[in-house]
Amino acid sequence: MPRYFFHLRHGPGPDGLATDPEGDALAGPDAARAHALAAARDLIARARLDAVRDWFSCTFEVTDEDGRPVMSVPFADTVTEDGD
What we know:
Layout: E1 3-9, E2 17-18, E3 24-25, H1 29-46, E4 59-63, E5 69-74
Antiparallel strand pairs: 1-2, 1-3, 1-4, 4-5
């Protein structure tokens, strides 16, 4: 299975990026997006960090094992229009 890395963009520049050194082995891009949204929901609900003032302005920058960008998943995507 491919390994995806979920880097947390919480502000501008290099200081606003928390890198994921381990990553997660997942079935594919759909599974990676679902994983990112689940992790974002968990962070929004549970984490209190001085560095992050507004979780909904954060994004997971997902890369593959070679460091190539796969997708960006905004934390705002955890809220759907129909409330699900």
